[in-house]
Amino acid sequence: MNNWQRFWDSDIAWSWRHSWLAMISTFIFVVMMIAAFGAPIIAPHNPFDLATLNLMDSLKPPIWSPGADPVFPLGTDSQGRDMLSALMYGTRVSLLIGLASVIISMLIGIVLGLLSGYLGGRLDAFIMRVADVQLSFPAILIALLIDGVARAVVPNEMHDIIAFPVLVGAIALAGWPQYARTVRGSTMVEKNREYVQAAKVIGISSPVIMFRHVLPNVTGPVLVLATVHLATAIITEATLSFLGVGVPPTSPSLGTLIRVGNDFLFSGEWWVTIFPGIALVLLVLSVNLLGDWLRDALNPKLN
């Protein structure tokens, strides 16, 4: 109870309580997280169980439209899948890919940034030049390149099997330079502090100094960057899926649902693509607003 009270009375909790945008964003993000990861339990239907689908239920409109079926509150798609359930499962896939890619990007970027900032020299120059070259290309192009190379070297029958890890790896490898540059800049400042000099004097090795002493003091900007990068990763995944190079149709993400529904947008069945689009916007917007709030809350110049 004391730990919870201390957190509730902390500066960051006070900042959150006094920001209505942060509270609304947190509420939307938490609701979507619960709906996504609790989909197998709380979803009305399993939209990807072929045994439960009925083509007679295809393209049912939302519940407020004429001819709607109360069993499907947000309507159905061309296969008779419940759109509400499909949104829950699709959001789960998008979040899993986004979170996994951000974690991998963060790990790669932190390690390379620490090495670059602490050791310096040729290693620093090499890592930063690689990061500069990669940053000169849009992340979506790098992800497309990595995904295309992976699909070219793997047999066609394994494409669906490797789609998830390849997509995560492509997005992760496209995002590490931001973390590396951020950590490098903070590390170059921290390595000249007294506590680092004292650790060197008593004989602590460089790897221990980097990861036990310097790393905890450079995580603030990394957490803010990771929050913003999560939204970027979700958008990148949705773009790749919309282009047809994302996750397989058997486990679609929000981007896949938007791509499938796009074929019906101008034939009157607008809900098949509009609802996944709204879900994607809400998810990305809530994460972005939380990232903006966290950046301001951790900035001592604004407190």
UniProtKB/TrEMBL annotation:
Belongs to the binding-protein-dependent transport system permease family. It comes from Orrella marina. The chain crosses the membrane at residues 20-43, 93-115, 135-154, 161-180, 222-245, 270-291. It is found in: Cell membrane. It is a multi-pass membrane protein. GO terms for cellular component: plasma membrane. Residues 91-291 form the ABC transmembrane type-1 domain. The keyword Transmembrane helix applies. Keywords: Cell membrane, Membrane, Transmembrane, Transmembrane helix, Transport. This is ABC transporter permease. SUPFAM superfamilies: MetI-like. One of its GO terms (biological process) is transmembrane transport. The keyword Membrane applies. Its main location: membrane. It comes from the Bacteria.
